[in-house]
Design goal:
Length: about 375
């Protein structure tokens, strides 16, 4: 392909955890550099505020926490973009992975590409935001960002539908490019040994839940499913941390599952692969919360790349990835009994695990490889700089 774009600036804003968004951007930068492009990647991390600064923010925003946070988001992004503005002089295109960056790039004439990983205002409502003025301001920021972007990449059809239906953005500027994974890198990392792989040997056999502990990831569903599996020798290993950890630990105790459920806490992305390798199955039990529906799960793709059975909720981007009964299994969101039944069947049937796993790996190689993924993104870039 004739690549017309030369130097690219990639910006991103991550929460304080390692997750699918960071994996996505890291892979994007690596693939672009592998194509010989000059890429500058800038990641804005949440600021550390003094007590005085917090007090001023609260006073400026009528003692409303959510309004103060929104004020901070925009102010800090403005500062961040001004700090890197000298580096934009020779850039041909900016690719943003958060709406705040596009919103704040109002005085930049460069082509802007925005990848939509999730519905911003709905995600904040899910996180407990209740101030309607703040939520409405978030929607305004989203709307302006979607209109300002020259092209929008949606990681699944659900994100495209959200942008089109909720913000009346033309379908012509939206490109659905599903997440991808680097198969060779995953294979190499899965063969490494670390303290987690040693731990996995002691825990085996186990089902792995590689999920951040937030409501939409439905980890409680997987824990409750274990109530119905006390007669088989299978543990549930949860790799991830988050605000719901305390209540999930309490749920495990309440159900008397302390010897069956293991919390590993936060795990760096590259350390997860030996766990994926050794797991009997991988559970992605997402549930819809406040209108937020799971996009394509990178963890699911990585597990499938290693030939593992993925058992996922029949929801959003997950049902675009998993063909039920062919290369994985789907269950209705929140139905722990249905999940337990599938887990039991997979645990007891090694032939099934192998056959489904082989088809899962074949799907990743044919449909979710990085080569067509990065080519599609480069086509979007070339389209907006013409």
């Amino acid at each position: 392909m004739d690549m017309k774009v030369g130097k690219i600036l990639v910006t991103s804003f991550f929460p304080r955890h390692v997750g699918g968004l960071q994996s996505h951007v890291d892979l994007l930068v690596s693939c672009l550099e592998g194509k010989g492009l000059n890429v500058s990647h800038f990641q804005r991390l949440p600021p550390k505020l003094s007590f005085y600064r917090k007090a001023v923010l609260f006073l400026q925003n009528g003692l409303k926490r959510e309004r103060a946070l929104l004020h901070l988001y925009v102010e800090e992004m403005d500062k961040f973009l001004k700090s890197i503005s000298p580096l934009m002089r020779n850039v041909e295109l900016i690719h943003c992975h958060d709406v705040f960056a596009v919103f704040c790039l109002r005085n930049v004439s460069l082509p802007l590409v925005l990848t939509v990983h999730g519905p911003l205002s709905l995600e904040h409502r899910m996180m407990g935001w209740k101030d309607e003025k703040s939520l409405e301001k978030l929607r305004i920021i989203e709307s302006e960002a979607y209109r300002r972007a020259n092209a929008i990449i949606a990681v699944d059809t659900g994100q495209k539908d959200y942008v089109v239906k909720d913000f009346q953005i033309s379908e012509d500027k939206i490109h659905v490019i599903r997440n991808a994974v680097d198969f060779q890198k995953i294979l190499k990392l899965s063969q490494s040994e670390n303290c987690l792989s040693s731990m996995a040997t002691n825990l085996a056999p186990f089902a792995l839940v590689p999920r951040r502990l937030v409501a939409k990831n439905g980890v409680a569903v997987a824990i409750k499913a274990m109530r119905f599996l006390k007669d088989i020798d299978l543990k549930l290993v949860i790799a991830g941390d988050g605000p719901e950890r305390r209540q999930l630990v309490s749920l495990v105790k309440m159900l008397g599952l302390e010897d069956r459920v293991v919390f590993l806490g936060m795990i760096q992305h590259e350390a997860i692969f030996p766990l994926l390798r050794d797991a009997h199955m991988v559970i992605i039990p997402s549930v819809p919360v406040s209108g937020v529906v799971e996009a394509t799960s990178i963890a699911a793709l990585e597990a499938m790349a290693l030939g593992k059975i993925v058992i996922a909720s029949n929801i959003g981007g997950l049902r675009e990835v998993v063909n039920d009964g062919v290369d994985g299994f789907l269950f209705e969101p929140g139905n722990e009994k249905a999940l337990a039944e599938i887990m039991r069947n997979c645990f007891l049937n090694q032939t099934l695990r192998v056959e489904i796993g082989e088809r899962a790996r074949a799907k990743i190689l044919s449909s979710y490889d990085i080569s067509p993924w990065i080519s599609a993104i480069l086509n979007v870039y070339n389209g907006v700089i013409q």
